[in-house]
Amino acid sequence: MAGRIVLGWREWVALPGLGIGAVRAKIDSGARSSALHVDAHWRFSEGGAPWVGFRLSPDLVGGEVIESVAPIHDERNVTDSGGRRTRRVFLRTPLCLAGIEREIEINLSDRRGMRFPMLLGRTAMARVFTVDPARSFLHGRHAPVVPPTFSLTPGRPPQ
C-alpha cells in the first residue's frame, strides 16, 4: 500500500468532463463500480453512435441544475446492495480527487434517498487510492469547473 493516497470514507470529487465541479461521494471499496445519481436521462444518437444526456438536481451538486451529455461506453447489469439487478448505462470520464486526475467508468443510477449522490467503487480506486474508514473529507472541496462545450439540442428532452 506504500505510495497510495489515503482517502476518507467520504470525499468531494470532481467530474470535469461532465461539467461537475464538486459532488459528495461515498468511497466504497465493497462496490465494484462507481455510480452517479441522475434525476433523468435520455438516449440519442450522434454521428451514428449512442449517447446519453442527463440532469442532476441542484441540491446534490451545489444549487444549480446540471445537464450534460456523454457517449455511452457500455451497458451492463449491476446488482445493488439490496440484491436488485438493473441494466445501467456506463460512461468513461475523468475523475479529479486528491490532486489526481484519472479516467474512470461510472454508471448512471437513481440514488434518491441515498446520502451521497455518488458512489466511488474499487475499480476507480485501484492502484492509486486506499481508504481510512475512520476519516472523511481529507482532500477538501474542488473549485468549480467550466462545463464542457457541447450542444444539448440533439436528443434533448422537452422541459
UniProtKB/TrEMBL annotation:
The record's GO molecular-function terms, alphabetically, read: peptidase activity
Q: Does the keyword Protease apply?
A: yes
Listed GO biological process terms: proteolysis
Gene3D superfamilies this protein is in?
Acid Proteases
Q: Where is the Retropepsin-like aspartic endopeptidase domain?
A: 6-141
One Pfam match, given by its short name, reads: Zn_protease
SUPFAM superfamilies hit by this protein: Acid proteases (SSF50630)
From the Swiss-Prot or TrEMBL record, give the protein name: ATP-dependent zinc protease
Please tell me the species this chain comes from: Lysobacter cavernae
